[in-house]
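Researcher: Going back to the complex we discussed earlier. I've cleaned up the inputs and rechecked each line, so this should be the final set. Can you rerun the prediction on the complete assembly and write out the structure?
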Amino acid sequence: MQQFEYASPASLNEALSLLGSKWGETDVLAGGTDQISLMKEYLHTPKRVVNIKGIKELHGVHHSPQGMRIGATTTFDELAMDKALAAEYPSLVTAVLGIASPQIRNMGTAGGDLCQRPRCWYFRGGYGVLALQDGKSLVPNGQNEFHAIFGGGPAYFVSPSSLGPALIALNAQVKLVSASGSRMVPVGKFFVSPQNDQSREIALMPNEILTEIVVPPARGVKNTTYEVRHKDALDWPLATASVALTMKGSSVGSARIVLGHVAPTPWVATQAEQALTGKSLSDDVIAQAADAAVADAKPLSQNVYKVQLAKVAVKRALMEAAGRA
Amino acid sequence: MATTTITKTEKLVGKAMRRQEDPRLITGSATYVDDIQMPGMLHACILRSPHGAANIKSVDIAAALAHPGVAAVYVGKDTEKVGPVPCGASLPGLRVPHHYVLAIDRVYFIGHPVAVVVATDKYIARDAVDLIEVEYETLQAVTDPEKAIGPGAPPVHPEWPDNVAFNYHQEGGDVDTAFAQAEVVVKQRITSQRLIPSSMETRGVVADYNTGDKALTIWSSTQIPHLMRTLVAQMLGAPEHKVRVVTPEVGGGFGSKLNVYAEEALMGFVAMKLGQPVKWIESRRENCMCTIHGRGHVDYFEVAAKKDGTILGIKLKLIQDLGAYHQLLTPAIPTLSVLMMPGLYRCQNVRADIVGAFTNAVPTDAYRGAGRPEATHGIERMVDILAAELKMDPAEIRLKNFIHNDEFPYATGTGLSYDSGNYAAPLHKAMDLIDYHNLREEQRQARSQGRLMGIGLSTYGEICAFGPSPATPAGGWESATVKIEPSGMVTVMTGSSPHGQGEETTFAQITADELGVGIDDVIVLHGDTAIVQYGIGTFGSRGTAVGGTAVYFALQELKKKIKKYGAMLLESEEVSFSDGVCVDHKTGKSVTLAEIAGASHRAMKLPPGTQPGMVETYFWEPPNFAFPFGAHAVVTEVNRETGDIEIKRYVAVDDCGNIINPLIVAGQVHGGVVQGLGQALWEQAVYDDNGQLITGEFMDYAIPRASMIPWIETEHTVTPSPVNPLGVKGVGEAGTIGCSPAVVNSVVDALSTLGVRHIDMPMTPEKIWNLMEGARA
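Model: Rerun complete. Updated structure for the full complex:
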C-alpha cells in the first residue's frame, strides 16, 4: 500500500473541502470493504483518504410520507435491521442480506455499494475498466465466464452493486454533493458504461460525495429481488433480478424489471416489462417475461450459462412477487 | 497402609467426552505462532514470483534496503548454501530438482520465493517488498499435466525436457488373461482436481537464535516437529541438538503441514544472520499459492468383468500433476493411490502405471486422504459405471465383489495385507438407514414427474495408521512417555503432534482407564522437541492407532513398576493394580497410586532392581497398517433450471475399529465429509495457460461454508483391528475418502436418464446445466 494522508472530518463541508478535482488525488473511505483492498492492490493510490464515517448527517435511515432517505454511511446490517424498510422494500432487504458475510454487512455501507469498483479480474489485475492489453480488450477471448451478457463493449465487466437494481426498479435517486452545490441523480443514470480507459463507471465526480439515497414510497408496490449464487460465501451473485410491480386489480399496471451482474450497469429489461404490462401474473406470462428479459442477451465465449441464470432470476423474482415462490 | 475405597470404576474409553483442548481454543486463550511476541523481534515478508516461468535477469534491492525500518534483504545468492528443501520420498529413477529456499536465476511457479525482506514491523516489510526491482524474462509455462508430458510442451526444468519426473509400474496377478477372458470391459477417464488444503490457520514461523549458546529455536505451525528439527538442522548445517522446534497451537493442517518448507529454513537463516528473533506469517494468498496443493490426478481406468458383475481385472494409467518441485512426500502420494486401487473388491489382477509430471505450479503433496481419495473415487466410479453397463444395482455389484469376511487377513494384488473387515455390514446399515429400496421406488415416481433424483453409494477402504517403518519414509513408529508425578498426577508426552484430532483427550482417556485416575488428572504434552522424546507426528490417520498404542504400551510398562512399588509398600508378594490402587487380596490392604508415586520419588526404599521415579517411555513399531472401511449413501436432486445440486440426505457409516471417543469420531467424519463435498461440488485450484493461479483467494476458491453443508447422519459398525491392542483403525481421512464418489455417483444416477455416464469434479451447476443442455440438443 502506498503512503497517504488521512483525514477524518466531522462535517460534510470540511470533507468536501478536502477532495481533489481529479480522480486519483483523493479517495473517500466509508466501510472500506472495497477501498482498502483497492489500495492494497495498488489499484488506487490516493494521496489523501477522507474518512466520512465521522459525519453524523450521512448516517441512518429516515422514513417520511415522501419515502425513505438512506444516509450514505448506513451499514448493510443497519438496513437489514430496519423494520419499516423491510415492510415496504423487501426487494432491498433481499439484496442486502445477499451480501456476504456478516462481517462485510457490519462494515460495508449503502453508498459504498453504489460506488464500489468492478470485480472483473482483469480490472483487479491492473488492466483497467476496459481490460485493455495493447489497446484490445482481453475479455472476449479470455476468462469471461462472469462477464457481461448485455451491453458489452467497450467495457465487459458487470456492475457489482447489490442495491443498484432494486433501487432502479424503485425509481430511487442519489444525492451528490460538492463544495459548489448538490444534484439529484436517478440511480439509473448514476451507473454508466465507461467508453474509455480513463472514465469511471459511475456519474460521481471526483470532488463529489454521494450523501444519501432517496427512495420513493412503495406501499402497494410488489417489489422483490432474486439472486442466483452458487456459493453462500464471500462472493457476488452470478445474476439477479429486482422487480417492482404496480398492480391494477389482478393485472400489472406498470412493471420495472432490472437485472444485476449481467452488464456494466444494472440492466433494465424493457422487453420483459412490456411483456408483463396489462397482464395477470400467470405462470405463462411470467415465463414469457423471463424469456423476453434475455431475448437480446449477447453472451461471450464462456458465459452462455449466465443467460439461463438471468432468465431464472427474473422468473423467480416474479413468482415471489406473485406470491408463489 | 490405609484401606481405601475404590471410587474410580467408570471407564472412559468408548465414552463421548468433550475435548480437553477445547476450553482454550474456544475462549481465545490458545497460543498460535502469530501470538508469539519476543523482545526485538523482526518481521519478514517474502517477494514472490508473479510469473509461472521466467528467468531472473536482475534483482535490485537497493531501494528496499534504504527504506526506513528495513533490517536486511536477502536474495537467492545469499541463501544458496541453505537447503535444499527436502524430498523424503524415493522412487526408482526419480528426478529431483534442487529446491533452493530462494530462487537463484529462474522461477518455476507463481509464488516462488525470490527475496526476503526483514524489518522492524510487518507493514514496513510488506511495503519494502514492493521496492525490490526484479527484471524477469518470462518463459512459456505449462500447468496441465497431460500437456506437460505431451509433445511440444515447454520444459519446466530445462534439464528434463520431457517433464517426466518418474515412471512407476506396479502389477499383480495376471492382468492380460483377466482382460482376455472378460465379457465386458468399461473404460473411463476420471480426474481428481487440484485442491487447496485451506487450513484455517495459515503457515507461520518464528525463529530465535541465541548467539551465546549458538542454539536455534523455531516455532512453526507444523504436523511434524521432530522431523522438522532433523531436516531444518540439515538444511542450515546446524547441529541437531542445538535446534529446538516448538509447535504451538496448530490451526489445521490436513497434510499441508506434513512438510518442511523453504520458509522454516529461511527464517532460521535470518535469525542466525541477524541474531534477532524473526517472525513470518503466511498470508491467505500465499497459502493458496505456495503451500502444497492436493490431488491433481488424471486417471485412465479400465475394468474387466464377467456379465454377472464379477470384477476380473483393473488397469490404471495415472498422470500425477507434481508441480515444479518435490516437497516432502510429493512423488509418493500417487503410489498410495495404486496400493488402494482395488478398493474393497476381490480382484487380484491389477496393473498401474504412473507418470509423474512436472508442471509450473506449486507442488502437490498430502492432502486429507493423500492418494486414497483419488483411488477410491476411481474404483467407486468404475464400479458404478460397470453396474450401469450391466444394468445391475450398484449395491448388488458391490456385495458380489466384496472380499469375504473369512478371507482376512487378505493379501491384495497390490501387496497389502488388509487386517480385518466386514465390508457388507456398513453397506447394509447405510442402505437400511437411508431406506434404499423404498428410495428406488421414490426415484421411479420422481422420474415420472420429470424430477432428477439420484441415489449414490460408495464403499471405501483406506490405508491408515502409517505405518510399518519400512513402508514409511523417516519411520512409521511412534513414541510415548508416561510420567506419574510425586503427587500422583499424570503427564503423557506423545511423539504425535495433534492439531485438531483431539488426542489430548483420547490419549488422556486411555491413560485414565489404565491408571484408574480421572481425566483431569492427566495432561498430554506434545509438539516441543525440547520436552518430548523423538516422535514422528500426526498424519495418515495414525495419531491414535500408532501414537495411542505407544501410550498404551508405555502404560503397561509403567503398571509393572507400579505393582513392584505397591508390593514393596504392602509388604506383599502378589498385588493387583486396578482403578488406581494396588491391592493385596490376601490382606485386603491397599495403597493408592499417589502414595506409590510419592514413595517412588522419595525413594526411601526401592523394590529390588528398580529405579526411583515413575516414568516409562515406549517406542511402538506397528506390524502393519490398519484398514478402515465404510459405506456412504447420498440422495441428491438436480435443479433442471439452474443445474444446482441439492443434497437431500447424507448417510455415513464408518468402521474405524474400536471407538475411543464417539464425539471426536463424529467430528472427524463430519469434517472429512465437508472436505469431500468441497471437492465433489465446489473446489478447484485453477491455473491459466500462463501459470497464473486464478483461484488465489477465497473469493474465487470455493471452500464450503457451514450453511452449504447438509445434515450428516453418522453411524458405525465396529470391526476391531488386530494390528494394535486398542483395536483402533483411524478415522481422520475416512469422511473425505468415502464422500466424493458417493456424491458423484448420486448425481450421475440423477442424470442417468439423460444418458450421462460420468461427471468430473467439481460438479458445478454450470457443468451440470451444460450436460443437461447437451442431452437436450
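Model: Worth noting: Residues 1-6 of chain B have pLDDT under 50 and may be disordered.
Researcher: Good, that matches what I expected from the previous run.
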